C-alpha cells in the first residue's frame, strides 16, 4: 500500500541557507524554486521541500539510506569534501554500528536550521535496484521522525489503517514501515540520538507514496472521518497528531521492499 516517502516538507528561516546546504554541499538538484519555497530532488522518487517561515524551526529527524558498500565514501564526502561535521556520541564516536556487528551502520549531522539528518546503511539492502542519487549516493529516504504524545496510539493507527509493519516496538519508540518508508514514532519525552536532542514536533508535511490511484482511493476510504486539508485526483492530505500527512499516487512498484530485500 505505502511504498515510500515521496516528499518531506519542512520549514526553514533561510531559503538561501537550505540552497547552500542541500544543493551546494549535498549536491541535490533544485527542481522548484519560488520566493517562499525550494524543492530538491533527493532520488527519482523523492523530493525534499523547504518553506520559509517567520517562526522558530523545531528540528525534524530524517535518514537517507545509502549503499553499504559506499558508506565510507559517503562519510569521506560529508567530512572532507563538504566539510560538514558529524555529530558525536557522548563517548566521542561519530560512526555507530547497530543490530548485529557488520549489519548496520550510521552517522548523524545537522543542517543550518538544526534539522537532524542521518546517513544509514544496511548490509542486506540490494544495491542494484535503485539508482544512487548524488554524492551521498542516496537510495531512498528511509526515516522520518514523528514525535508524538502517545506512541501506541499513533503506531496503532498507521498499522491498523495502512497495514504498516511494526518493528522495535517499545512504549516510547516504534518503527512503522511501509515499503521503504520507516516512520520513526518517538515519544516527545524521548530524546533523539546521538546528541540527546529534545524531540520537538516539527512543523512538517510528510507525503507517503502509494502504489497507483486505486490504492489512493482505498486510502480515502481508510481515512474517512479524518480532517481533510486538501484532496485531488492524485493526492489526499489529512491532519493527524498535528502533522500534515499526505498520500500521493505514484508509480513506484508495490513490491519495492521485496525487490530491495528489506526484511
Ligand atoms: Fe534515525
From TrEMBL:
InterPro entries: Glyas_Bleomycin-R_OHBP_Dase, VOC_core. Signal peptide: none annotated. Residues 1-122 form the VOC domain. PROSITE patterns: VOC (PS51819). It comes from the Bacteria. This is VOC domain-containing protein. It comes from Thermobacillus composti (strain DSM 18247 / JCM 13945 / KWC4). The lineage of its organism: Bacteria, Bacillati, Bacillota, Bacilli, Bacillales.
Amino acid at each position: 500500500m505505502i511504498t515510500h516517502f515521496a516528499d518531506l516538507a519542512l520549514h526553514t528561516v533561510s531559503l538561501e541557507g537550505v540552497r547552500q546546504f542541500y544543493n551546494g554541499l549535498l549536491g541535490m538538484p533544485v527542481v522548484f524554486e519560488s520566493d517562499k519555497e525550494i524543492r530538491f530532488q533527493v532520488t527519482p522518487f523523492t523530493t525534499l521541500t523547504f518553506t520559509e517561515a517567520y517562526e522558530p524551526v523545531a528540528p525534524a529527524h530524517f535518514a537517507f539510506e545509502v549503499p553499504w558498500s559506499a558508506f565510507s565514501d559517503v562519510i569521506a564526502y560529508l567530512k572532507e569534501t563538504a566539510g560538514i561535521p558529524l555529530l558525536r556520541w557522548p563517548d566521542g564516536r561519530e560512526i555507530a554500528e547497530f543490530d548485529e556487528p557488520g549489519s548496520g551502520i550510521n552517522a548523524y549531522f545537522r543542517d543550518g536550521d538544526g534539522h537532524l539528518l542521518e546517513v544509514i546503511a544496511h548490509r542486506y539492502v540490494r544495491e542494484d535496484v535503485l539508482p544512487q542519487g548524488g554524492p551521498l549516493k542516496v537510495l531512498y529516504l528511509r526515516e522520518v521522525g514523528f514525535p508524538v504524545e502517545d506512541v501506541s496510539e499513533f503506531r496503532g493507527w498507521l498499522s491498523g489503517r495502512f497495514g504498516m509493519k511494526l518493528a522495535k516496538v517499545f512504549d516510547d519508540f516504534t518503527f512503522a514501515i511501509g515499503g521503504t518508508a520507516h516512520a520513526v514514532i518517538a515519544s516527545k519525552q524521548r530524546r533523539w540520538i546521538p546528541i540527546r536532542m529534545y524531540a520537538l514536533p516539527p512543523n512538517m508535511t510528510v507525503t507517503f507514496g502509494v502504489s497507483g490511484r486505486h490504492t489512493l482511493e482505498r486510502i480515502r476510504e481508510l481515512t474517512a472521518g479524518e480532517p481533510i486539508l486538501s484532496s485531488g485526483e492524485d493526492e489526499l492530505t489529512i491532519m493527524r497528531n498535528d502533522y500534515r500527512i499526505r498520500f500521493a499516487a505514484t508509480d513506484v512498484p508495490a513490491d519495492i521492499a521485496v525487490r530491495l530485500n528489506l526484511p
